Task: structure prediction
Amino acid sequence: MNLRDPLRLWLLISEYGPMQELYGLTPQSRGQRLNGLIADLLECWGISAESDIRSHGEIDVGFEIESRHFVVEAKWEATKTDLGPLAKLQKRLRQRLQGTVGVFLSMAGFTADAIKDLKDGDPLSVICLTQEHFEAMLSGFVPPAELLLQCLKNASRRGVAHTPLIDLFGPPTRKIPDLVFAPPLWSEPLVVEAVMGFEVRVAMSGLPHGLQGAVELAPRRLLLTLPEGIALANLETPSVTQWLNFPNCSNNPVVTRDGWVYFARHAGIARVRDRVVQCVAGGFIGNVRVIAGAGGGVWVFSNGCPWGVHEIITPCAVLTPDRLGKQELLFLNYPPAAAHSALHLAGATFLIGSQGLALVNTEQFDGIVSSPEYNLINAGGLIRLKADQFLIACTGNELWELRLPSRAYRRIAKFSIGNSCNYLLSKTGGGGYLTGLLNSPDGTCSNYLLQWNYPLNNS
Result:
């Protein structure tokens, strides 16, 4: 599921925005272009596709995934699709090699009767996609091969032609690991040294090695990015439950004041609220993460890639729009694939952590500190405490404070457990959480979650 051509995919996403508004297009010409857009999208992921196939009944798009042949009928109309067009696609499938899978994409959706008749009629040979599925593929949030094969699996196992995006992956295939809401019995003292006023305790241990990030959804309720999906940990109960069944998301989600939760998965960014999933940006490559904007909003940061189909992919940032197709890329002056973390400061300026810290925008690179001066190697966590006060988590199990614009540094704490500090986040009412790796006496690794408090007036 590697994105072969992110530059081309960015162009397709940019084209998709005006298509939604019929800018420079008629409904008929938009429908015709949709066929080419689907084929181009598949090509970006290394899937050879052919559009506008004229034979025994015209086929909009044809392609192959894992030796399975797919034919697509696509419609972008104002009204929902009823059974008639679906029946025509089924007839065309009967004219082709047995085992060919039909895909009907209706951007406006389907009537309830059409879906019911498909389920109760002849053997199921068509899977039904809507605009939310198309946008998941176009953004790269659920790459085309993954989405189509997952829909095919749902159709085969459950006999359903249409699976809403929120239910695409169904219940998690792997049980959420048992988590321990206490320090491990064999743990050493947490802190080697710390400034006056700094407090820390173990909130959870035994987290799986695949922990990717965390965010506070509400006071003492954390969303954990696990391989199985997004889990909700209640530190008061204490308990952990599955919250969202999208596996393999990455890094910290971001929760906004209006209740949306933004998260990164593969090449795309989606937000979810009240069981509604919307893909809002995509086409990213490398280490992709969502970060809260200094003045509101949510940013996407991608650290790029030193190789590409046409050229090197430099790091970029995007202020997430309210829908896919409206993103504006800011290419940042930073080495590709080098950044471990990023924090939005103002405008197009970011604080980026790697082998040191740098202030970066579209034109300038200001290396404000390098690793020989301070132990700020692999700065995996960056958060803002106040307008001019920042906290940095880095290799060596250390927390450092940065003051801007004076560029004053000092070490806040050094921990005794684990190998590294990874994800750093703030919590309601001050203080925050920190995750890291913990080595057990038997040589196995797990993750811990520390809860820390550091008075903001501490100087």
